[in-house]
Structures are given as structure tokens and as C-alpha cells.
Amino acid sequence: MVQTGEDSFDSRPGRPESASTPAAPARYVLVVDDDPIINELVRAYVGLVGLPSRGAYTGTDAIEAFREQTPALIVLDLMLPDLSGFDVCRHVRATATGREIPIVMLTAMPDDGSRRRGMEVGATDYLTKPFDPDRLLDLISRYGKGTPGER
Fold first, then answer.
1. Contact partners, residue 122, CB within 8 Å, separation at least 6
2. For the chain, which domains are there?
């Protein structure tokens, strides 16, 4: 399902996008979390900031969405069913277009080692679950709406 405007579009496995759906919006936030409730919640916060979003539920789907259209921001969980968020981050950072994209890791892994590793592989910021909604909104607004030079 693809929708434009402040609405979202979805890339869940088993939910193919039809050829008649409109193209993805030019600037969107890619939300990567295998928990559908968290994914939808974060995408709702993205909508509050006035940006469209796209949900991905696996690392492979996230990489595919990134390849299809470059997002303005990636909100990335670390524990995914196929690839880790670290792997997804490394993949994005290894591309020319992915070097400037802000990546906010949003994860249940609060330990300093995971935080340090996240920053080493290229995360822009790191937020742990349960998260402060105001902090998440601030990060989405700052990183999702700014141009690379403003971030």
C-alpha cells in the first residue's frame, strides 16, 4: 500500500504494492521495526511532524525500501528477524546516497556497548525503548525536515 501526503505507505512482507498505486513521496521517513505496534506508533509520530513515512519490518525490506527511494531519515530498530540494525546501518552508510542520511537507532538494547557499536557503524543518534515521545518527536523533526547541511 502506498499513499502520499501525510499518510504512510507500507512494505510488510506479503503486502505487495500494486502497479496502480502512486509513487512514493519525495521526502519520507523510513521506520524499521519488526513489531507492528511500535512501527505504527513511530509512524504516527512522524505524521505529527508533518512528514510521510514508510514502514519496513525486516532488514531486507529496509534495504529494499532505501534502494527504491532515498529517505530523509531512517528510524532503525536493532533486533530484526533477518539482519541486525547494525547490518542495515552499515549497508546504508556504504552507499554514496546513504552517507548523509540521518539514522536514529530506536532499540530495547540500553547497554553502552550497543550504543557505542551503533555510533561506530554510523548511527546519528540512539534512543532506547521505552522512549520519551517528546525526544522522538524532536529527533524526527530535526533530522527528518532538515537538509544535510542543517542536520
1. 89, 90, 92, 93, 103
2. 8-150 (3.40.50.2300)
Q: Does the global pTM surpass 0.85?
A: no
What pLDDT is recorded for position 26? Answer: 58
C-alpha–C-alpha distance, residues 113 and 21, integer Å = 42
pLDDT above 50 for 129: yes
Grid cell in block for residue 68 = 527504491
Of 11, 72, 68, 66, nearest in space to 39 by CA: 11
Of 18-32, 73-87, 88-102, 122-136, the one with minimum mean pLDDT is 18-32
Helix 133-145 / helix 36-49 crossing angle, nearest 10 deg: 60
Burial class of residue 17, CB neighbours in 10 A (0-12, 13-18, 19+): middle
Q: Pairing state of beta strands 125-128 and 73-76?
A: unpaired
